[in-house]
Amino acid sequence: MSRIGVFICHCGENISRTVDVERVASEIGKHPGVAFSTDYKYMCSDPGQTLLKKAIQEQKLTHIVVAACSPRMHEKTFRKAVEAAGLNPFLCEMANIREHCSWVHENREEATLKAIDIVGMMVERVKKNRILPTITVPVTKRSLVIGGGIAGIQAALDIADCGHEVILVEREPSIGGHMAQLSETFPTLDCSQCIMTPKMVDVANHPKIKLYTYSEIELVEGYIGNFQVTIKKKARSVDEDKCTGCGVCMTKCPQKKIPNKFDQNIGMRTAIYVPFPQAVPNTPVIDRENCTWFKTGKCGICQKVCGPGAVDFEQQDRLIVEAVGAIVVATGFDLYSIAEKPKGSPIKGYGEFGHGKIPDVIDGMTFERLASASGPTGGRILRPSDGKEPKQIVFIQCIGSRAREKGISYCSKVCCMYTAKHTMLYHHKVHDGQAYVFFMDARTPGKSYDEFWRRSIEEEEAVYIRGMVSRLYQKGDKIVVMGSDIAVGVQVEIEADMVVLATAVMPQKGADTLAQKLGISYDKYHFYSEAHAKLRPVECATAGIYLAGACQGPKDIPETVSQASAAAAKVMTLFSKDKLEREPIVARVREIGCVGCFACKKVCAYGAIEEKEIRDRQGNLIKVVAYVNPGVCAGCGTCQATCPSKSVELDGYTDEQIVAMIEAL
Amino acid sequence: MKTLLNYSYYPGCSLHASASEYDLSTRELFNALGIGLTEIPDWFCCGATPAHNVDELLSLSLCAKNLELADKVEGDMAVACASCFSRLKTTQHVLTENEVKRKQVETAINAPVKLDSSVKHLLEILAKDLGLERLATAANKPLAGLKVACYYGCLLTRPTDVPNLDCTEAPTIMERVIEAVGAETVAWTHRLECCGANFTLSRPGVVIQLTNAILESAKAAGADCIMVGCPLCHGNLDIRQKEIEGVYNADYNMPVFYLTQLVGLSVGLGAEKLGLDAMIVNPMPLLKEKGLL
């Protein structure tokens, strides 16, 4: 005979405001099988858990129902408490009377009756709960880091420094990401390359880091502790082992006028190229679309001049499979473009700014390349159209960001600070120039950030105009900026030589496709979703996958680095155990009933169903049945719903339990 | 050409008064193109700018009632004036989004609001319903050599998601229509700037300043004339032009046509059927010079 204990939580006032918790406790106390019921203000707190544990021991309780919030919130908490009191944790269930009841109802009487029903159902359900033994799976102590920007680099170095192997995969020919493109960084104005490139070299030299550049993730299989990842290493056309990085091939390449993406297409590169001089690895790659050899079959100069014979036109894309236990996703961001967007895109572009067709209207990243000592102008601020130095420059913030009508409602977080930085860099380089900034608000919540912003106004003479710009148009060689100054209440017109737009930070293109390969969730903008906005900010809801940097949301460098180190710490937590315990909520096959139709195998999204031969003592094959690999099973229950002979059941969610719940109503 | 298209016509107040040439040229053009127009019986003012500045419920109800009247005539609603078009579309948009207001309006007009009925500006009918190809075929006297500055003003495309006539900030529908009948268009900067609209009476100084910028920009782009789809824009650009020239010591001499007048010319309609004599800036010298009359 079961002795069920029921514990009703007030959740401060979250539940008790709408639900008469005392009445629920007294009503459920009369329910058959319930030996003990009580209510408490905060069941999840230390005294609450102590109350639970004491009751289990004193009342000799066999099954527990905690009526509180969603099991997503605290099921683990209470199961741990129950286990500490000596019961199998899976004999404890939660009745959700917060999200499913008090938060969504106003009528106290009706909500109370509903709460009694919900708890009653869980009492009936828990009577059918079985003791489930915890499943252990092995952990492969290697990790994959996707993305070689500052987030990926930091995460990879931290994990590798703890002695575990890291596979770092980068889509571009070099690691470094956007941070390598930046000139100086706020709020200290130290040179981005100077703090970035040593870390890039550390990655290249680290014995525990295996670097795949110019590579992409093709396929991800498996589960926490045991992923198999297929990486596509695109043909570089240069043998990385033979190449010495001397660069002769690049100086001799006749194709010299290809816009360099790293320089935001304002600088030019050759067809065989490294994106920037400090690239890691310092091995060129042939851009086959623009290479004369690949287009016409003639030329081949790079191959002729290459001393070590590293140029290999025959090289093919390769698929490499790596086994890892954890994955850090650090794919970073992309910038909003004001150009016209294809029909159906929620992003609208800026027709009022000429859809990006005015040559001296550039974005913040292009300004970074102009200001960078290693950029296409050698660090001089020059107009892309005619190479003249702009004497009047206008910066416009919140382009795309915080503009619902343009398709994005969020704040991109870094633009206020980098625009302040741009005004300083401009003032340092063009002494007789004047910078104007159109802004809605200045958002500077970071250490030394507001001081930095004030400095741009007070010492570097930037003129900040609170208001937005309605239109940009070319007039002769000037750009007319029509805006408003809402502090004074007048319209403003500035004839500028150059305009810099602080365009919104968006996820990388293809972020959604990668998420689907990884099985992680993302929001409507394709930023990856963390498991809990406050308490689990670096973990995905999918176990064993962690997030670092701007792929999760707009972030500046300090925040990105912090999150990357946090993700690395999470990976190390996982690797600190040799075996991983996982919830035993997995499907089980009743072999007697199974006819071996394998309908379950067809619907299983995780590849957890295997074929198992049943033989008699003489070794004669009797039949082939389905077998669920408990290490792979994700506990989704699809097989259970599919099985025509009802021979597969999900532990913890058996038909018997569900029917008991329905009958309790 | 056979009559394939038929519309319930909402001229709006201006077209029965200061913009009678817009009304005349619209009827003549549609007749020539074989498009049916039936004026909505008993239509009344949409409320324009004054109503929605004073009482939102009144302005929504005026438009809702007109939508209901239009529904009784066969065909989609054809609207000539940019302001009427904007108010009718805004009413449908607001009342679709806001159920409380919809119920209030329904009580006021004592009928359900026609939220889904199709309200079309003349441009849309020419460019989409009739189609540019058929329009080009009908243009037996193409406007070759005429450089047109297409002026949208504020209301034809704005705000985002309400009129849905074309791209809000970089529309091309006017250019497409007038190029289809053989004219050239100029790329200019003030296509979508405000002309000052009805401040023309209360704050003429503002209107003169704004309208001057528009005329200046069109002239600088090399336009021979301006084409509009709004009676109020027309009034400011055409009627005030002499005064502006005086204030700014400029010489624009820039005829301002309604779109139906220019398209009408291209299908062979004469000056008297297009009301060209009602224009303040005389277009005759330009049209003769270009051999279009």
Could you write a compact summary of the structure shown?
Chain A is α/β, with parallel strands linked by helices and about 675 residues long. Helix content of chain A is about 25%, strand content about 25%. The longest helix of chain A is centred in the N-terminal third of the chain and has 20 residues, at about 110-125.
| Name of the CATH architecture of the largest domain in chain A | 3-Layer(bba) Sandwich
Note the beta-strand portion of chain B.
5-15%
Helix/strand-derived category of chain B reads alpha/beta
Low-confidence stretches of chain B: none
Query: Helix count of chain A?
Result: 18
Structural class of chain A: alpha/beta
Largest interface: A-B, 13 and 11 residues
Q: Distance between the terminal alpha carbons of chain B, to the nearest Å?
A: 23 Å
How much strand of chain A?
15-25%
CATH level 3 topology of the largest domain in chain A: FAD/NAD(P)-binding domain
Rough shape of chain B? globular
Element-by-element helix/strand order of chain B: EHEHHEHHEHEHEHHEHHEHHH
At the first level of CATH, what is the class of the largest domain in chain B? Answer: Alpha Beta
Uncertain parts of chain A:
none
Number of E-type strands of chain A = 34
Describe this structure in words.
The complex is a heterodimer of chains A (665) and B (293). Chain A has 665 residues and is of the alpha/beta class. Chain A is 27% helix and 25% strand. Chain A folds into 4 domains: 4-127, Rossmann fold (3-Layer(aba) Sandwich), CATH 3.40.50; 142-185 and 207-330 and 544-575, FAD/NAD(P)-binding domain, CATH 3.50.50; 333-506, 3-Layer(bba) Sandwich (FAD/NAD(P)-binding domain), CATH 3.50.50.60; 587-663, Alpha-Beta Plaits. Chain A has 18 helices and 34 strands. In chain A, the strands form 12 sheets. In chain A, strands 10-7-6-18-29 form a 5-stranded parallel β-sheet. Chain A has a 5-stranded parallel β-sheet with strand order 20-27-21-22-23. A 4-stranded parallel β-sheet of chain A has the order 2-1-3-4, sandwiched between helices. In chain A, helix 5 runs antiparallel to helix 18 (655-663) and helix 6 packs parallel to helix 15. Chain B is α/β, with parallel strands linked by helices and 293 residues long. Chain B folds into 2 domains: 5-121, Glutathione S-transferase Yfyf (Class Pi), Chain A, domain 2 (Up-down Bundle); 141-289, Rossmann fold. Helices cover 49% and strands 11% of the residues of chain B. Chain B has 14 helices and 8 strands. In chain B, the strands form 2 sheets. Chain B has a 4-stranded parallel β-sheet, with helices on both faces. Chain B has a 4-stranded parallel β-sheet with strand order 6-5-7-8, with helices on both faces. In chain B, strand 5, helix 7 and strand 6 form a beta-alpha-beta unit. The longest helix of chain B is centred in the middle third of the chain and has 17 residues, at 122-138. The A-B interface holds A 340, 348, 350-352, 354-355, 405, 471, 473-475, 480 and B 159-161, 167-171, 189, 192-193.
